[in-house]
């Protein structure tokens, strides 16, 4: 299960992700980001697991300019993100 909590900032909306980013939650996240064009940052601090589809989506979003931050060491390793 994936929980998404939105907050605002001067740079745009931040979406806190908590739980596991797996099917069908990957599609739910894709839909949420597409629906709300203000989402500029994803706080990954609450993610405990990301499957291959979730990792692909996060990389796609990052390439489109969405900032990924606060990933745990485990999630950073899965996504090959810098510290």
Radius of gyration: 11 Å
Q: β content, as a range? A: 35-45%
Structural class: alpha/beta
Number of helices: 3
Biggest sheet: strands, sense, closure? Answer: 4 strands, mixed
Strands across the major sheet, in which order?
1-2-3-4
Helix and strand pattern:
EEHEHEH
Low-confidence runs (pLDDT<50, min 5 residues)?
A: none
What is the fold-level CATH name, i.e. the topology? Transcription Regulator spoIIAA
Structure in words:
It is a single chain. The chain is α/β, with parallel strands linked by helices and 83 residues long. The chain has one domain: STAS domain (Transcription Regulator spoIIAA), CATH 3.30.750.24. It is built from three helices and four strands. It has a four-stranded mixed β-sheet. The longest helix is centred in the C-terminal third of the chain and has 12 residues, at 52-63. The radius of gyration is 11 Å and the shape is globular.
Can you summarize this structure?
By secondary structure, this protein is α/β, with parallel strands linked by helices. The chain is 36% helix and 40% strand.
Topology:
Layout lengths: L1 E8 L2 E10 L3 H11 L3 E12 L1 H12 L3 E3 L3 H7 L4
Parallel strand pairs: 2-3, 3-4
Antiparallel strand pairs: 1-2
Give the tags.
alpha/beta, Transcription Regulator spoIIAA, four-stranded mixed β-sheet, 3 helices, 36% helix
